[in-house]
Write a structure and sequence with these properties.
Elements (H helix, E strand, L loop, with lengths): L6 H6 L4 E5 L11 H9 L3 E5 L18 H11 L9 E6 L1 H12 L6 E5 L2 E2 L3 E2 L11 E5 L4 E2 H5 L7 H18 L10 E2 L16 E5 L12 E3 L26 E3 L14 H20 L3 E4 L10 E4 L7 E9 L2 E7 L6 E5 L2 E5 L2 E4 L4 E6 L9 E4 L6 E9 L2 E7 L6 E5 L2 E5 L1 E6 L2
Parallel strand pairs: 1-2, 1-3, 3-4, 4-7, 7-10
Antiparallel strand pairs: 5-6, 8-9, 11-12, 13-19, 14-15, 15-16, 15-19, 17-18, 20-26, 21-22, 22-23, 22-26, 24-25
Helix pairs in contact: 2-7, 3-4
Length: 433
Amino acid sequence: MGTNINFNELSTGQVPVVFLVNGLWGCDPCICRKLHDDLQKVGITVYDCDWDDIHRRPQGKGGHLTDTRFVKQMLNEVFPKIPEHRPIVMIGHSFGADSILKVARDTSRRISLLGVLDGVRHGGVRTKVEVRNNVDYFYNRWTKYPTPFLDFELPILGKIKPIRKLQTISAETISKALGMVSLKNFEGGIPINADHTGHIPCHHNHSDQAEQSFATDVHGNILSRKAKPHEVTAKGYNPLPRWLPGGKKGWGTVQRKRRHGGDKGLYLDEYIQKQLYDLIMLLAFTPMTQTAWALASNGVIPNGAFVAGHDSEGLHAPLYIARTMHAGGMHPGKIRHEFGWANIPWGGREITINPYQVFMGSGHWVKASNGHIPAGAIVGGRDEDNNADLFIARASHAGGMHPGKIRHSWQHANIPWGGQELLISDYEVLVGE
């Protein structure tokens, strides 16, 4: 299981270093496989680890009863090799999620991104390790549907109804004897207390936590499957035979459940992997601009963000500089508290996207026009066209002052407004102090 850690690369690499940490007995050869492969394609360093040991071993072989060894290895062997300026990303599933939460709790290092997927601790119940303020961005997803015990080790036997019934009785008896959890909606699997929330206390305002119990595609749309004959409450169910008027073939559809692990594991979800990829790519771009940016999402604006303008509507609410990945580029735009996302100008439209970064640096505005970019202009992004630098600009329109972007070869600044990408020939460019 896992990949051998290159300690020399840890010391010399410049891109974010990502640790994908598996659950008990190596629940899957590699969690978030698509995320893993996509990151490697763009040169991001990725290491796969088990929850109890950073060193590679055959899947299902060896192992320890606790994560003490893993936590010590990360704190004493791995982190000291990583330069302070290099972003650290840890993503864990099940027991692996509990392990990385402990690592983040016990280190003084900044963790750029901490991702928890269905975190579980000893006893098979949901983890509750608190997240400290050394974590810049906390991402947490959980499902309310447990994975039956036999599905982890004996997936074929787990499909046999009498055995599945026995396993459920056994699990219920054990959990009652331990007195660990309420058995409301108990399904006989991991986590045992799947009916409890997976929310984790977090002492930082960049916390993105939500239940996700159904499979989604890469765009976040909930996926469905064909209903089985007994699922009479399924959407589109029609009791009439197809040979009668109004009858039709099929039993409708039901939403596809995500479970804790196995072939329906939460770590396989396309949308979750896309969100994590976007967050890591935002981190990867930050060192190139040498300015301060903070990860955020869902309308969060970190304290101390640079005020860059004001909106046209209402009481002229302040606008801040945001940027996000889109179509292969990194595009500056704007955000305000009421938006819930970043707004960027692209392709003639105003695009709304989560997650994003908010500008935390400083500068002053210099008036310009007709494509001129003053010396010292702050690079805020990169165009997908020839990787050209995009600089932070702003322009006045409809009573507001709206942040946007400009690049060499353009004769205007581009700002997002009213669902469109507007081209303004008189504008201001943000220049470093």
